[in-house]
Amino acid sequence: MRAAPSPSLHGRFDRLLPYLQIAPLALVLFVFLLIPLALIVVVSFWDYDSFRVIPAFVTFNYTEMLGSPTIWRTMWSTVQFTLITLAITGALGFAVAYYIAFYVRSPVMKTIFFMACTIPFLTSNIIRMISWVPFLGRNGLINSMLMDIGLTAEPLDFLLYSRFAVVLVYVYLFTLFMVTPLFNAMSRIDRSIIEAAVDAGASPLQIMFRVVLPLTKTGFAIGSVFVITLVMGDFVTVRLMGGGQSASTGLLITNQISCCNILPPAPMRSCSSSW
Amino acid sequence: MIRHSPLSRALQILMGLFLLFLYGPTITILILSFQGPQGGLTFPLKDASLHWFASLFEVQRVGDFGGSLKRSLILAVLVMFVNVLIAVPAGMALRKGFRGARTLFWLTIASLIVPSILVSLGIGLLFSQTGLGTSWYTSAFGAHLTWTLPFGVLIMIGVFARLNPAYEEAAVDAGATRWQTFRHVTFPIILPNVVGVMLFGFSLSYDEMPRTVLAGGAYNTLPLEIYAMTNNVTTPVLYALGSLTTLVSFAVIATALVLMSIARRRTGGGAALSKPSEET
Lengths: 275, 280
Description:
The structure holds two protein chains of two kinds.
Chain A: H1 7-43, E1 47-48, E2 53-54, H2 60-66, H3 69-103, H4 107-118, H5 125-130, H6 133-136, H7 141-148, H8 163-187, H9 191-199, H10 204-215, H11 217-233, H12 236-242, H13 249-259, H14 265-274
Helix pairs in contact in A: 3-8, 3-11, 8-11, 8-12, 9-10, 13-14
Chain B: H1 6-32, H2 51-56, H3 59-62, H4 65-96, H5 101-113, H6 116-129, H7 139-162, H8 166-173, H9 178-206, H10 222-232, H11 237-266
Helix pairs in contact in B: 1-11, 4-7, 4-9, 4-10, 5-7, 6-7, 7-9, 8-9, 9-11
């Protein structure tokens, strides 16, 4: 049997332990997050020709970009996408979370509803996007339904490959990111507050908007951070659902990269779009 | 506790529509993947068959489906284990507190919310500029960790925040070493959540695409292969592939849920955590 370590050694190990436990996380984030992001900033000041980037300090990458009307138009379009998506996911997420938190009584049913909202998140986003094609296409379900009931004579073209399709898919993919933080915020509300409101004669609508809504501000804040960064950084949805007519900053970055082999304009643009 | 009213009725209908909105498209492509050889991308379903599933496995028809599936599965399993091995100790360290804990916490959050295309671009730059070269098992592996670790660490922070320290103190008082305390007390209590972290690690990696796109190297992972296919494949084979990958995801989720409920039953219904867990 080994002798017990001396108290001082023991104490030192105790103090060191958290650092040992956190070290792998710190290492991964340093190598795969901090250095890459720093590198993007550095390379954005480099010169380039058709084949490679050349270490230097130039600023024309920035001046070129800031003078380009395409860039400004694209950024404006991205901001519009973000605001519309934020408004819809916020309202929808609030309603869904409110229903689960306050109208579903049994904890088992609560868990089932909550999981039903979460599970799609764990399946492929691209496949989920593609699965809208049979609905939105020219001969898709929605168009044939509208024509069958006689609402429209011609198939609607704006359904697929349009800004409408992009926003629809954003809402489809990202509402969960609102539901989760809002549901958490609502679960933490003290039930006696609600009871007090009921006793004081508040109507269900008043409880929803005057009592619960102000108490879920942090939930909205967290959800908004997710939705904003997801929409701002997206390029897949815009490419697949926008049909070449919609632009976004994320798509612009990928286009810059794919038409030239990792050239500075792309890194530079990404710096300015995200900070 | 809030009485039923037109509002509750409206919310109930909205909830139903929302679930239909979430699952309708997935169910639709599941049905359409059984389209006959002459069928198109939308209804009607002509002569239901397994034609498109069969053509998935003919390499020349739809690209390298088998290879990309294999790479994605290997990568997802690797990420799953490495992710949980990093996230659990990190959660313990953050619970105890140390100098720089706040910085590391915010760095973890940053890893979650920095746009994926930037992470991908940065890692791609790093690996190409240093001459290491990008590949799915090096640079993409790291890119996936930047996406799965925040989920793992945040879940573990939540778990340890609810873990009553009395159980571990009792073990220490009874003479258990630090390792014994972890092995026989802490670990069994957190096991359901550890399985949850593994589920997230696997699923998020298996479906990851924006962070892989510039860091993936010469051989595609499955989501990249699908993304490439959307350019040039206009047959229901796409739906067959979609149905298949969705089934893989559902199988993984179901397995994890079964394992979690077994683990929970063994530790007495999670009574040691002050609140039944809701991470899943």
